[in-house]
Specification:
Elements lengths: L3 H9 L2 H8 L18 H15 L7 E5 L5 H8 L3 E6 L2 H9 L3 E4 L7 H4 L4 E5 L8 H5 L3 H14 L6 E9 L18 H11 L8 H9 L3 E8 L1 H16 L3 H9 L1 H6 L1 H7 L5 H7 L3 E10 L1
Parallel strand pairs: 1-2, 1-4, 2-3, 4-5
Antiparallel strand pairs: 5-7, 6-7
Bound molecules: S-adenosylmethionine.
């Protein structure tokens, strides 16, 4: 699993800049354009929230859990529709921001959740967090399936039979290269280099091999009801993020100044955040990565 230190590197370091660019409770995961790129980013994220609400068949007064809730975009939506929303994150920056915004969020490893942790729920969502549950070291030790099995056992433990889980995650695509060939110092523009850059942005994280690996590990507790690719939608989402991150503001400029020592002294920081390219986009375009939204029913 990506450790709290890894997660803080990816998310807490950019906490303030993220909130100034994308919004206090902005989403940091692929939006649901369904190919309609005339939508704004915010409309497409809202469409995703509405889809999750409908697919989980939530109703006012019910309880929903968000495993890996980020800055709380989905939680805010669920709360506004009259349900109770509980979130967990491993990022201290996200946790503090969510609490300030009145959201019920806990700094907790969601893989260890049981019914005793926060009680039972009517629906569970996990959006863009599954990517972090297995580390490269766990993959190399042959534990990847075991890690995913535990995630599904945790989700299942809080859900009654017949209720639903919404899961959105990146996976390695069908053009994925040999894992040991991934290398950030490989020739620029090569597949090995693009994937290497991604490992710098998301240290401690390793992806499932296709949606099949996710489905296989879900199968003992969950039946797949629906699956769709969000790969092209994700490319558009990243395009919109980059515009918003680049939009000038004095507060962002001041924050960036505080990051100059890291820029100067940390190669990892430079590769992760200021490489000048979007490694994710390159990997999605080349289908080194894919992306899926899945709806499961608890059996
Ligand atoms: C890409 S962000 C997505 C956030 C949010 N779901 C969204 O759509 O904006 C990944 C989230 O997963 C969380 N996460 C990763 N591993 C976790 C773990 N083991 N336990 C709890 N949260 C975790 C991170 O802290 C972060 O909030």
């Amino acid at each position: 699993m990506a450790s709290q230190r890894d997660i803080d590197f990816t998310y807490t370091l950019i906490d303030k800049i993220f909130r100034l660019s994308i919004g206090e409770t902005g989403d940091f995961s692929g939006a649901k354009y369904d190919g309609d790129f005339s939508l704004t980013l915010e409309e497409a994220q809202r469409r995703k929230h509405a889809f999750v609400w409908e697919q989980l068949r939530l109703a006012p007064g019910q309880r929903a859990l968000d495993m890996g809730c980020g800055w709380g975009g989905l939680l805010r939506y669920v709360k506004a529709r009259g349900a109770t929303a509980v979130g967990v994150t491993l990022s201290r920056g996200q946790w503090a921001a969510c609490r300030r915004n009145g959201l019920d969020v806990h700094l907790h490893d969601c893989r260890t959740i049981t019914r005793d942790t926060f009680g039972a729920f009517d629906g569970v969502a996990s959006i863009g967090a599954f990517e972090h549950f297995c580390s490269p070291a766990e993959f190399r030790a042959g534990k990847q399936d075991e890690v995913y099995r535990q995630v599904f056992r945790a989700a299942a433990s809080v859900l009654p039979r017949g209720s639903r889980l919404f899961l959105q995650t990146m996976v390695f695509g069908h053009n994925m290269i040999r894992p040991d060939a991934i290398d950030v110092h490989a020739p620029r523009d090569s597949d090995a280099w693009a994937l290497g850059l991604m490992t710098k942005t998301f240290p401690g994280s390793w992806l499932p091999f296709g949606s099949e690996q996710v489905e296989r590990n879900a199968a003992p507790e969950f039946r797949l009801l629906h699956k769709e690719s969000g790969r092209l939608d994700y490319i558009e989402t990243i395009r919109q993020w980059r515009k918003r991150f680049a939009a000038p503001s004095w507060r962002k400029r001041l924050l960036k100044i505080t990051l100059i020592p890291r820029y100067l002294f940390s190669e990892d920081f430079r590769l992760a955040f200021v490489s000048g390219v979007s490694a994710n986009t390159i990997c999605f375009e080349r289908e080194l990565l894919d992306h899926f939204r899945m709806v499961y029913e608890r059996v």
